[in-house]
Amino acid sequence: MSTVQETLALKDPSLFRQQAYVNGEWQGATNGETFEVRNPATGGLLGTVPLMGTAETRHAIEAANAAWPAWRKKTAKERAVVLRKWHDLMMENADDLAL
Fold this sequence. Notes:
Residues 27-98 form the Aldehyde dehydrogenase domain. This protein is an alpha+beta fold. The chain has helices at residues 54-73, 76-92, 94-98, and strands at residues 20-22, 25-27, 34-38, 45-50. The chain has 3 helices and 4 strands; from the N terminus they run E-E-E-E-H-H-H. The two termini are 20 Å apart.
């Protein structure tokens, strides 16, 4: 297997984050550990992601639980605006997300 990272032909390389998004922030694992993500067709290294443990998982669950009351209070229309914006961003970046 190749240890050389494959070059991804991204239109917007800033979309390729090798961290976890928790509570509005990009984070690595507390212990700094990561694991490799490989292209199944070539075995080439695509990148790494943090190897989150129990503490990080609990933190993510607690953050999601804390965010829930505010989301729950939003009207269906307000939620639709957020989801539509997310949809539009995904469609704008569909080619990069597909890699």
